[in-house]
């Protein structure tokens, strides 16, 4: 076996605020961020200072749970070449107090309507493509649960 | 701060100019504005050039080489869709402060058929577009509209009526990129772009240029007997709100800007004769009725149902046809909105003239975000 062939392929998160444990996918990934020690504002990812109050920390690290609900959405029909459309592009309010952009699955994209507001969703991760070095690119997505 | 007059204003018809470069477009608009003012480049003491994609290539100075390289200070401005209006405000501030007596504000852009904004970045391998929501403008402004639906029960049909109105207005604007009426049924049945916006509810890409000559009151007297005045020129950025920037907040910074602008102008929304606002998508226009105080909270849907914002209505909005029809060559848009208001105040707006217009408000928002409001009066 050549040395090159033995180089293990990695799973890379598509954004820095998605963390993939070392034993991913056996252990699921999660969204990560910080909490401002002064005003309590929560953010996805690391920060230099708080956008709300200007505090420079030190910030408290947060491992956000994957449960939340749909705040608002669009259904994107026209997009960049190579992407499957339409897709439901939502703004998700996580139960842990932070907001994330995400694709939502389990909804009929031909029937967007007010009944989608407040729908309970749960996060999962999925390989979405492979980068030029052969690593898997992993994204966080959401699926409608049987809540509201 | 001194009073500042707009003495010259002009624009090119927005559209597609594949046979001209953007410097030529900007030069033609600049010369037209200076002719309108009755001045020449030799009278101009400061030039502020707004262009989103060419500001890193010194377009302002390249324009000067075309219209007269007098050696005066040139500032290149880039501020997303608020680029042109930010350039105008810089020119205004420079004259109001007393530093200069005559300034030329130029807005220009050549987009061709570049397609969806942000689509270049969205084709990178680590792009989140379409796998973790959307950052493309139609979807972002779609979500902003859906938020209004959630809060107030606004319907897709009400948003579609914005497109019906603005496309109807455009028929009377020879400077608009498109001058085609679109009945409600056509708007609703058009190809969906990003819910709730269909094709006719999205502004087109295109090319264009506009320019304005600003002068101190004393200087203006030498050139015109009927100047119009900048009653307020305000620029805001988006303050912290909990969901932003995951979900761009296009409302708070517009509300902050309108509050400040009304205070500075010493008027309220009820005193406006007309508004040119940033209808990049039909959804945005209804939100801004409330953000600009044209109606109460949650009343924007009813306002369009009642036809209050048509020319001839209680408060005409986007008599020009708006970005939806007039087009949105990014850097040119903010200056062109002001040119439109100036024409109405002078009674030069032809078939789309708002009767007896005395005070107009021009609003622009660029995502990221920047908001400008300019209130112009007779």
Provide a concise account of the structure shown.
The complex is a heterodimer of chains A (148) and B (378). By secondary structure, chain A is mainly β. Chain A is built from 1 helix and 10 strands.
Task: Provide structural commentary.
The complex is a heterodimer of chains A (148) and B (378). Chain A has 148 residues and is mostly beta strands. In chain A, strands 6-7-8-10-9 form a five-stranded mixed β-barrel. The longest helix of chain A is centred in the first third of the chain and has 4 residues. Chain A starts with a helix and ends with a strand. Chain B is of the alpha/beta class and 378 residues long. In chain B, α1 packs across α2 and α4 crosses α9. The longest helix of chain B is centred in the C-terminal third of the chain and has 17 residues. The radius of gyration of chain B is 19 Å and the shape is globular.
Radius of gyration of chain B: 19 Å
Binned, the helix content of chain B reads 25-40%
Structural class of chain A: mainly beta
Mean pLDDT of chain A: 94
CATH class of chain B: Alpha Beta
Uncertain segments of chain B of ≥5 residues (pLDDT<50)?
none
State the largest interface: A-B, 44 and 36 residues
Secondary structure tally: strands of chain B: 11
Multimerization status = heterodimer
- According to DSSP, the number of beta strands of chain A is 10
Q: Work out the radius of gyration of chain A.
A: 18 Å
Strand order of the largest sheet of chain A: 6-7-8-10-9
What is the second-level CATH architecture of chain B? 3-Layer(aba) Sandwich
The helix count of chain A comes to: 1
How far the N terminus sits from the C terminus of chain B, by CA atoms, comes to 19 Å
Largest sheet of chain B: 9 strands, mixed
